[in-house]
């Protein structure tokens, strides 16, 4: 798994929250670590700084919180989100920061995909009056469990990955969640017709037994009702603890499925790939999978078996082939962070892109609010007229009635190339509605 390199963006910094169980999430070269010093040292330092006069005084930073799955085995999504935020912070700070000169800084917390830990992290971030907003990570169940705390504390949550529809469609008024990412309903509107392109209209669903899986089941059923040419022949559920998915795959195959749509993460998909690759080629169905696998080290975990199956994955952005100035600038910064020579080597590219966009949009909202007041920042997010971004120009990013910045037109299918890069699949004949 590619780790973040010891390269520094001069205008960006990240503070690390030290977590239990020996975990310390670190962006090497960018982290600011606080150490407890002897009392006398602190007194001498305080006197020295006082004697130097106010020339040493720096504007108080405006903090952005990140509560994500740092430390989750095999995950690359939290680091991708972090790098996207830091690249944007670097650009914003070099341009003068926010609120007439206050720099942005990142405070990152690890939740290991444990909802209770996520809630505790958000409580701590919300208690800091200099924190403007909190970014979440990849796992929808963790984010869904934090919604009550987000709205009780009235702190904006920016979602660069988690896709469950209910994260934004949460019935809270006012709604403090803003997403620039995929929705499960859009994923199904891309994946099911893509099965049709492969002449597969009888579909088997293999879903993770979580609120994320249930969100996708609802989305699939809604799409099927609107498009009777597709049939869901069977739905099977699995748990993270399942050692093999062969039995569930064969049940879908025997039910008449012509393609499998899977909702899961990297380690889940590896089990499915290995199960299918062990079968005769005549029994290997196309696998169309939600994008959770791109938030982990799926390519290396799957190994050579990946080349033995027909697997495609839903995506919303790719750096590959992009020639515009913004894409080139962000890609170069990301390559420095990860110490890679080619954009094809960047892990979890959607996390980088989405977090980058959201950070710039949030900075515009902070400046539009004119003060570090979370309610005013929330309101400002709904009233930004436009933002010319990396993925597209948003006119506007959000409104009072729409807290999703992307839409179905931004969704496409992709495949893993032989080198592990996630390559868009040409959308010839693809119907999404």
Short description:
The chain has 433 residues and is α/β, with parallel strands linked by helices. It is 37% helix and 16% strand. α7 links the parallel β8 (202-208) and β9 (231-238).
Keywords:
globular, 7-stranded parallel beta sheet, 13 helices, alpha/beta, 16 strands, disordered C terminus
Map the helices and strands:
Elements: E1 14-16, E2 31-32, H1 39-51, E3 62-68, H2 77-94, E4 104-110, H3 115-126, E5 131-135, H4 140-153, E6 157-159, H5 165-168, E7 177-179, H6 184-197, E8 202-208, H7 211-226, E9 231-238, H8 246-254, E10 259-263, H9 266-277, E11 287-289, H10 298-302, E12 311-315, H11 325-338, H12 349-369, H13 374-381, E13 387-388, E14 393-394, E15 412-416, E16 422-424
Parallel strand pairs: 1-2, 1-4, 3-4, 3-5, 5-6, 6-7, 8-9, 8-10, 10-11, 11-12
Antiparallel strand pairs: 12-15, 13-14, 15-16
Helix pairs in contact: 2-12, 3-4, 6-7, 12-13
Commentary on this structure:
- Helix 2 (77-94) crosses helix 12 (349-369).
- The chain is 37% helix and 16% strand.
- The model is unreliable at 17-55 and 428-433 (pLDDT under 50).
- It is of the alpha/beta class and 433 residues long.
- The protein is globular.
What is the chain-wise order of helices and strands?
EEHEHEHEHEHEHEHEHEHEHEHHHEEEE
What proportion of the residues form beta strands (DSSP E)?
15-25%
Q: What is the rounded Rg? A: 22 Å
In round numbers, the mean pLDDT is 89
| Strand-pairing-aware structural class | alpha/beta
Main β-sheet description: 7 strands, parallel
How many strand elements? 16
- Helical content, roughly? 25-40%
With helices defined by DSSP (H or I, 4 residues minimum), what is the helix count?
A: 13
Low-confidence stretches: 17-55, 428-433
Gap between N and C termini, in Å?
37 Å
Task: Note the overall shape.
Answer: globular
**Sequence of strands across the biggest β-sheet:** 2-1-4-3-5-6-7
């Amino acid at each position: 798994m590619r780790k973040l390199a010891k390269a520094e963006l001069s205008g960006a910094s990240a503070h690390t929250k030290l977590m239990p169980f020996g975990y310390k999430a670190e962006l090497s070269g960018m982290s600011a670590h606080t150490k407890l010093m002897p009392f006398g040292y602190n007194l001498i330092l305080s006197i020295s700084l006082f004697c130097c006069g106010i020339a040493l005084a720096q504007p108080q930073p405006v903090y952005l919180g990140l509560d994500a799955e740092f430390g989750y085995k095999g995950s690359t999504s939290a680091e991708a989100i972090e790098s996207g935020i830091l690249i944007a912070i670097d650009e914003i700070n070099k341009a003068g920061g926010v609120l007439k000169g206050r720099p942005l800084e990142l405070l990152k917390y690890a939740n290991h995909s444990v909802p209770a830990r996520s809630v505790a992290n958000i409580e701590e971030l919300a208690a800091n009056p200099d924190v403007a907003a909190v970014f979440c990570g990849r796992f929808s169940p963790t984010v869904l469990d934090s919604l009550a705390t987000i709205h009780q504390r009235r702190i904006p949550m920016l979602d660069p990955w988690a896709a469950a529809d209910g994260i934004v469609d949460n019935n809270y008024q006012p709604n403090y969640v803003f997403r620039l990412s995929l929705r499960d309903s859009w994923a199904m509107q891309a994946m099911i017709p893509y099965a049709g392109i492969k002449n597969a209209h009888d579909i088997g669903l293999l879903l993770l037994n979580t609120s994320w899986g249930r969100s996708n089941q609802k989305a699939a059923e809604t799409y099927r009702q609107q498009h009777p040419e597709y049939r869901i022949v069977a739905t099977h559920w699995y748990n993270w603890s399942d050692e093999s998915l062969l039995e569930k795959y064969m049940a879908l195959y025997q039910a008449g499925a012509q393609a499998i749509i899977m909702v899961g993460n990297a380690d889940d998909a590896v089990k499915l790939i290995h199960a299918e690759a062990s079968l005769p080629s005549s029994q290997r169905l196309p696998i169309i999978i939600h994008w959770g696998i791109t938030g982990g080290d799926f390519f290396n975990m799957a190994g050579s078996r990946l080349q033995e199956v027909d697997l495609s994955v839903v995506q919303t952005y790719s750096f590959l082939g992009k020639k515009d100035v913004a894409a080139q600038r962000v890609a170069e910064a990301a390559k420095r962070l990860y110490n890679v020579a080619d954009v094809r080597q960047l892990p979890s590219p959607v996390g980088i892109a989405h977090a980058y966009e959201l950070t710039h949009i949030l900075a515009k909202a902070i400046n539009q609010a004119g003060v570090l007041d979370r309610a005013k920042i929330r309101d400002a997010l709904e009233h930004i007229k436009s933002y010319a971004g990396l993925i597209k120009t948003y006119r506007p990013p959000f409104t009072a009635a729409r807290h999703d910045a992307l839409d179905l037109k931004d969704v496409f299918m992709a495949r893993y190339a032989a080198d592990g890069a996630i390559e868009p699949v040409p959308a010839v004949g693809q119907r999404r509605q």
